[in-house]
Amino acid sequence: MKAVVYHGPFDVSVETVEDPKIEAANDAIVRITSANICGSDLHPYEGRVEFEPGSVFGHENMGVVEEVGPGVNRVQVGDRVSVPFNLACGTCRNCTEGFTSACLRANPSGQPGAGYGYPMMGPYRGGQAEYLRVPWADFNLLELPKGGEHELDFTMLSDIFPTGFHGTELAQVSAGNTVAIWGAGPVGLMAAHSAAIRGASQVFVVDFEPDRLKLVERFGATPVDASNSDPVEAIIELTDGFGVDCGVEAVGYQAHDPAGEEHPAMVMDGLIAAVRATGRIGVVGVYEPQDPGAATDAAKEGRYAFDFGTAFTKGLSIGTGQCPVKKYNRQLRDLIIRDIATPGLIVSHELGLDEAPRAYDQFDKRVDGWTKVVLHPAG
Ligand SMILES: NC(=O)c1ccc[n+]([C@@H]2O[C@H](COP(=O)([O-])OP(=O)(O)OC[C@H]3O[C@@H](n4cnc5c(N)ncnc54)[C@H](O)[C@@H]3O)[C@@H](O)[C@H]2O)c1
Ligand SMILES: [Zn+2]
Ligand SMILES: [Zn+2]
């Protein structure tokens, strides 16, 4: 089959690799209909996280079940399914408590949490390919209505829609709350969509990319352009001097100023300043324990020097981590089916697999208009 293969920083190609097979009784093989490129893929793509050359990318996958192992009895051949980016066993202590993002059995390295086509997430191949092997298929796969409807909405269920929602869950957004989100990438936009669905009274999204700020309005939120003014001042002013109840970090450790210079703590500092005393912050933007390419020596070792003193003085609650997709994907699917959620609005490009190298290049360079790429391996 054809797949997107990583060779080294800024070097991916589409190649023929071995077809995946049923390796264990609980496996399924999914024929991929949509596989998205994610902001998280850019970390290994840029060489900011080590990734084994020869690995196949892709953790945002959906498709149709092609084959199942003898131990699979819920999922059936022909089912249309979304594949959560967390690959989880379903029976360990963390899985049974709903934390599939920290499965204790799926990652042979011993690190909690596993996934497809991603560094340190186990030996599993990604789904930017024609087919994908899904272990523990009955547990991991979410069934979708058959047919082709809502493809671009449903394909957001594998990662970024639940992840944006998780940001608002960690920040405990509820009816009437005010919310500030840093980052108008796909994850930040999904957090804005989620905050509105949860009944927020005001939602602000901070970024400096004009095309992304434009999308903010599509989700009913207020864009805050940080390119030549202080976003914290703007948010404080727009909330009558009070600050917001809830904040969501949707940028991550490569936070930078409008000129492109990285300041790994600047987004956390902004959130801590903009959220009112005793408010709550959900951090879904990724921070790494090691980042040899970091802008500061401390950040190279995963130490991020944000304003913890002010956070403590204000009594802020800060939640972090990977999204346990299964906690939310069924409910978010049903919001899509009922036309209450439309996450597919962020898609800027639908391309064949062959165009993946160009898509990585353009998306990584933040070329105007490249907000979210969906690859369709079958064309
Ligand atoms: N926790 C999880 O489970 C999970 C899942 C998916 C993605 N992520 C992470 O979420 C983050 C966002 O993902 P994405 O796909 O939206 O990425 P992205 O790179 O497309 O978007 C990030 C956005 O942040 C903006 N930005 C950079 N510095 C900024 C600053 N100082 N102030 C305001 N905006 C700034 C950029 O202009 C960009 O639009 C990444 O770190 C990604 O790895 C986490
Ligand atoms: Zn992703
Ligand atoms: Zn588990």
From TrEMBL:
Keywords: Metal-binding, NAD, Oxidoreductase, Zinc. Its cofactor is Zn(2+). SUPFAM superfamilies: GroES-like, NAD(P)-binding Rossmann-fold domains. Residues 25-142 form the Alcohol dehydrogenase-like N-terminal domain. Residues 186-286 form the Alcohol dehydrogenase-like C-terminal domain. The keyword Zinc-finger does not apply. Pfam families: ADH_N (PF08240), ADH_zinc_N (PF00107). Transmembrane segments: none annotated. InterPro entries: ADH-like_C (IPR013149), ADH-like_N (IPR013154), ADH_Zn_CS (IPR002328), GroES-like_sf (IPR011032), NAD(P)-bd_dom_sf (IPR036291). Belongs to the zinc-containing alcohol dehydrogenase family. This is Glutathione-independent formaldehyde dehydrogenase.
